[in-house]
Specification:
Chain lengths: 289, 169
């Protein structure tokens, strides 16, 4: 399968990339790792006339950590996330998630920016970013603007990103030291999208959950935050009844489609199971419990 | 679009410097096979699932069916043709696949070998589970994975100066 013809551009800066996307208009697409876009082009489901390769753009592969925030450049690959000692220590949910995305070869090229930007509801990182309260930095002709991960996804492949804008980085508020985390993903095989998946980050004091955040992957047209489920676990020591109640609250907001991974009912049920497993795993990892 | 764009690319393939003009839409696997005649790299599923097209690029594994040749401009690529030693003796992985019967039809083998090469560079003494996870992006549809895993264990042992004691299934 050979993609349709296109003109290749290789800008050296974000400004140059945005200038190209603005002047070339809707027939242009940015190319990062290409692990989602190239398969679509080979199937001729995407046929951009211009590809703007971001590989030469300076500064997009950086991971910058401050005391309160970790900023990850859009072109950081999944393999880099897995290999980062800094992230393993301060944001271990990222490598746990990245290891459940695709396979080693795809993770060599696939980027966090691509996973976050394109709006595929099957992608894993968007729910993790919603769980973490992350903010996306979108660069455009008029400069940068910031959009919360929780406000970015509007529908399948439909996001707050405007034509001519580029997601250049994600800003993640640093979770408290000693927090518990988990990303639990049910999939049929390596490389598959989630039948259902859940991201959990929580903190505890004196054996009780102090803060909790939960988000779900691929059980609705967009990633979704399970606010009620998180509210139910706060203040508890995560007894069985609480896990069951939180699981039920997550199922209540899941709205999956039937597909090759199962019926809508099955996938909704699995969303509950993933929430239960992720809660138990995260609580088992938290310091202070 | 008026006329077809062609771009100059320069890369190192199996330690040889290569300069060519390519259409931007040329996939790396087609460039290797058709432009350079290196047909050891196979096209299997052509959808980035099966891993038959796996090559090494700057020390990492990628699927060459899901990469444009222009993206590899400036990179160093190794294909299965680079694996055997200059005197014709086999690489430890090739020897492992031979001795442990790690192949039947052989179609997935170039991808398996090149993926295993990088795996053993990153993790020179992997557990069986780490090998299975490490080759999870490579599908075999006839040999089965038992002997492929043993072949990689054989190679890891040999590269670490040990002898692999188990027999092929």
């Amino acid at each position: 399968m050979i993609p349709g013809p296109f003109t290749y551009h290789r800008p050296a800066s974000v400004e140059e990339a945005i200038g190209l996307m603005t002047s070339l208009g809707e027939e242009s697409r940015p190319l990062a790792g290409g692990q989602s876009l190239i398969p679509m082009m080979k199937l001729r489901m995407a046929a951009p006339e211009h590809l703007i390769d971001l590989a030469g753009v300076a500064g997009l592969k950086r991971i910058d950590a401050g005391p309160d925030e970790i900023r990850i450049g859009a072109a950081v690959t999944q393999a880099q996330l897995i290999g980062s000692a800094l992230l393993s220590e301060r944001l271990p949910i990222l490598s746990e998630t990245a290891l459940q995305i695709a396979d080693p070869q795809v993770r060599t090229l696939g980027t966090i920016g691509g996973n976050l930007a394109n709006g595929d509801p099957g992608n894993d990182m968007p729910a993790v970013m919603q769980c973490l309260g992350a903010i996306y930095v979108l660069a455009g002709p008029a400069g940068e603007r910031q959009v919360a991960a929780r406000d970015y996804y509007l529908g399948p492949y439909f996001t707050a990103l405007e034509q001519g804008e580029l997601l250049v980085a994600v800003r993640i508020p640093a979770p408290a030291a000693g927090h518990g985390h988990a990303y639990e993903k049910l999939k049929r095989k390596i490389g598959d999208y989630a039948t259902a998946a859940a991201a959990v980050v929580l903190t505890a004091t004196d054996g009780r959950i102090a803060t909790a955040s939960i988000a779900l992957t691929n059980v609705a047209p967009t990633p979704i935050v399970a606010e009620e489920a998180a509210r139910l676990v706060i203040g508890t020591s995560l007894d069985a009844a609480t896990v069951k109640a939180a699981s039920a609250a997550a199922k209540a907001i899941a709205d999956p489609a039937a597909d090759g991974r199962g019926t809508a009912d099955y996938r909704r049920e699995m969303a509950g199971v993933m929430v239960a497993r992720a809660l138990v795993k995260a609580f088992g990892r938290v310091k202070g419990a | 679009m008026s006329e077809t764009q062609t771009l100059p690319i320069t890369l190192t393939v199996n330690a040889n410097k290569v300069q060519r003009f390519v259409e931007p839409r040329t996939l790396l696997v087609h460039f290797l096979r058709e432009e350079l005649g290196l047909t050891g790299t196979h096209i299997g599923c052509d959808t980035s699932h099966c891993g038959a097209c796996t090559v090494e690029i700057d020390g990492q594994s990628i699927k060459s069916c899901t990469t444009f040749a222009v993206q590899a401009n400036g990179a160093a690529i190794n294909t299965v043709e680079s694996l055997a030693h200059a005197d014709g003796t086999l690489h430890a992985l090739q020897e492992g696949f031979r001795q442990m019967h790690g192949l039947q039809c052989g179609f997935c083998t170039p991808g398996m070998l090149m993926r295993a090469k990088v795996l053993l560079t990153e993790n020179p003494d992997p557990s069986e589970a780490e090998i299975r996870y490490g080759i999870s992006g490579n599908l075999c549809r006839c040999t089965g994975y038992q002997n492929i895993v043993k072949a990689i264990q054989f190679a890891a042992a040999q590269l670490n100066g040990r002898t692999f004691q188990e027999a092929a299934e």
